[in-house]
Amino acid sequence: MALSQNIADIRINYSKQALTEDSVAATPIEQFKSWLDEAIKSEAQEPTALILSTVNAAGKPSARVVLLKDIDEEGYTFFTNYSSRKGQKLEDNPYAAITFFWPALERQVRVEGKVVKVSQEASDAYFRSRPRGSRIGAWASPQSQVIEAREVLEQRDKAFEEKFAGSDEIPRPEYWGGYQLQPELVEFWQGRPNRLHDRIVYERDGANWQIKRLAP
């Protein structure tokens, strides 16, 4: 099947905003919160969606989209099944990268750093905040494992719904919880005309951050 358009001809000349060394916050977390808030206010679709990129022990990369669920001075937190493919990759190699992209604002943020598990208390607290169906789903899905058909998943979901019927106290599975990526490098990218984009990078230097401009 032929594409309806030559994809090499698809391009946008970015021109909405600029990014300078003088305009950014002192820390990347402060700057990220500012940009995330603008993305939320602009009603960008899935503003907390990020691409999580991991590398296994053999050096093979893989990537997938997950949702950011917390951000503080320590780093970026997301939740998943520890036994999933991404969980296994992080067990092999606890260093990863995450990427946010907000097309409506012509902005991108790249973060690199070490990933650690959050406390059981933090995982429990977030798990309790999830909708009931999502908590049931965490029990029902053997994430990343091969299953014979959709019906297998639906049957497991029904079985756990029956198991926890009549109770809203659904415990968190031991294999499910949070990770936090603790940043060592954070790059803020603002689209500019003629592909001369603004790139401001924060690089950790002990307890401090060095701020530099990169060529596009």
Give an overview in words.
Helix content is 25%, strand content 34%. The protein contains five helices and nine strands. Strands 1, 2, 3, 4, 5, 6, 7, 8 and 9 form a nine-stranded antiparallel beta sheet that branches. Helix 4 packs across helix 5. The longest helix has 14 residues. The mean pLDDT is 96.
Indicate the overall shape: globular
Average pLDDT value? 96
Number of strands: 9
- Biggest β-sheet description: 9 strands, antiparallel
Q: What integer value in Å does the Rg equal?
A: 20 Å
Order of helices and strands: HEEEEHEEHHHEEE
Outline of the structure:
The chain has helices at about 30-40, 85-90, 120-130, 130-140, 150-165; strands at about 50-55, 60-65, 70, 75-80, 95-100, 105-115, 175-190, 200-205, 210-215.
Fold blueprint:
Blueprint: H1 28-41, E1 49-55, E2 61-67, E3 70-72, E4 75-81, H2 85-92, E5 95-102, E6 107-117, H3 120-129, H4 132-140, H5 150-163, E7 176-190, E8 198-205, E9 208-214
Antiparallel strand pairs: 1-2, 1-5, 3-4, 4-7, 5-6, 6-7, 7-8, 8-9
